[in-house]
Design a protein that fits this description.
The chain is about 30% helix and about 20% strand. By secondary structure, the protein is α/β, with parallel strands linked by helices. About 55% of the residues are buried.
Length: about 400
């Protein structure tokens, strides 16, 4: 086609088949604990990450926001983590995929239950509750929803504890009684410790307290620094240096016959503060037309249409965003394996997934300046399927 001098070429829509879908069933976060638990002899668990060698004592250290790409980009700030890159995923030097969306509530549920989002039912930062029509924030658990109704499956920690494995979680005391902990990380004993050093020391002690043990520990402040100031900031790099020391501290205390796995729930990208990079849903009549609820987060949106407007909303969102976002209808996203392998979505989860899903490819976001004031002000964001967000490490240290 020949364009005249005053015409701009029409944008080329992203091919949905080209989206880098998570490796559910072979190399995603949902496959990690079942593989480790199978190595510990827990009934019903399958070792779907075939590269991992069983150990009698297993510790998982999940660092919120520590993406694979971010470790590779900061060897000076993270020398110890960098030295372990070749150990990732059983010595293959390859990362895991977080799952979609690459966000904390979804990923922690995938880790703890060993199930993909299409089954555990936490498909994003905020999702519609089909029973009430309300938008449910699944990280902060607002409005209140009975946790075990929302996510009814047992956790891998519970199954390991029932099988006689000494099971424990070591995290901030703030997380001891949260609904997300109850439905994703409960089982065995919870130990609240304030500082990172205290968590590392106690995790090592608990790991050596039994012949078969499974210990989970967590650190969140790296993610917070990235959200507030970005992954290019001095604050984020300072947190990465601290995390690097924590991992080494824990690794140096491993009791015999142990394996430490360092992983994350997602990576992160910085989104520029300009109109070309931040589409404001609250100010854009095209994007908001026919939309009853806007869920998800800036880089991974669930769009819930007014009944009867689903096809029109999908058409408009593709026209406006389709050259920078993968924009799919619910059925398309499920068939493509965004939320789990095709055909494995639980019936109760269907209505929680948007009529339209928009996943960012470029360093862009869909903000909502009036209704999501705090989220719209973030520098660092995540949620989509780009390598910077989706790829997470599985670094290994054995004793």
């Amino acid at each position: 086609m020949v364009h005249s001098a005053w015409q701009e070429p029409e944008p080329v829509l992203l091919d949905l088949a080209g989206a880098p879908v998570p490796q559910y069933g072979s190399g995603s976060l949902a496959d990690l604990l079942p593989t480790l638990a199978a190595g510990l002899g827990v009934p019903g668990m399958s070792a779907t990450i075939g590269e991992l060698v069983p150990a009698d004592r297993v510790c998982v250290f999940l660092i919120d926001g520590l993406g694979w790409e971010q470790i590779k980009a900061h060897p000076d700030e993270a020398p110890y983590l960098t030295s372990l890159l070749g150990s990732s995923r059983g010595g293959t030097g390859r990362p895991l995929t977080a799952g979609f969306p690459a966000t904390t509530a979804t990923s922690l549920a995938s880790v703890g239950t060993g199930l993909p989002p299409a089954r555990h039912g936490l498909p994003g930062y905020a999702a519609r509750n089909p029973e009430t029509g309300d938008l449910m924030n699944q990280l902060r658990w607002r409005p209140w929803t009975p946790p075990h109704v929302w996510q009814p499956y047992p956790t891998v920690f519970q199954l390991a504890h029932e099988a006689g494995v000494a099971t424990a979680q070591v995290s901030s005391p703030d997380f001891a009684q949260t609904p997300l902990t109850k439905i994703a990380l409960s089982g065995g004993t919870f130990h609240g410790r304030m500082t990172g050093e205290e968590r590392m020391d106690l995790a090592a002690q608990l790991l050596g307290s039994a012949d078969r043990s499974l210990v989970y520990t967590y650190y969140s402040e790296l993610d917070g620094a990235g959200h507030r100031q970005g992954v290019a900031s001095d604050a984020w790099r300072g947190q990465l240096m601290y995390v690097d020391r924590l991992v080494q501290r824990l690794a140096e205390q491993l009791p015999p016959r142990s394996a430490l796995y360092v992983t994350a729930d997602h990576g992160m990208v910085d989104v520029p503060f300009d109109e070309e990079s931040r589409y404001d849903f609250d100010e854009d009549w095209e994007l908001s037309a026919g939309v009853a609820l806007l869920g998800g987060e800036g880089r991974a949106r669930h769009v819930y249409a007014v009944p009867g407007a689903e096809a029109d909303v999908l058409t408009v969102w593709r026209e406006v965003l389709g050259d920078r976002f993968w924009v799919a209808g619910r059925a398309e996203a499920l068939d493509l394996g965004w939320f789990g392998r095709p055909g494995e979505c639980d019936e109760r989860v269907l209505g929680r997934i948007g009529d339209v899903i928009a996943a960012a490819r470029d360093d862009v976001a869909i903000i909502a300046s009036r209704t999501e004031v705090n989220e719209s002000a973030l520098t660092g964001m995540h949620g989509s399927m780009t390598p910077a967000e989706q790829l997470v490490p599985l670094l290994e240290v054995r004793s």
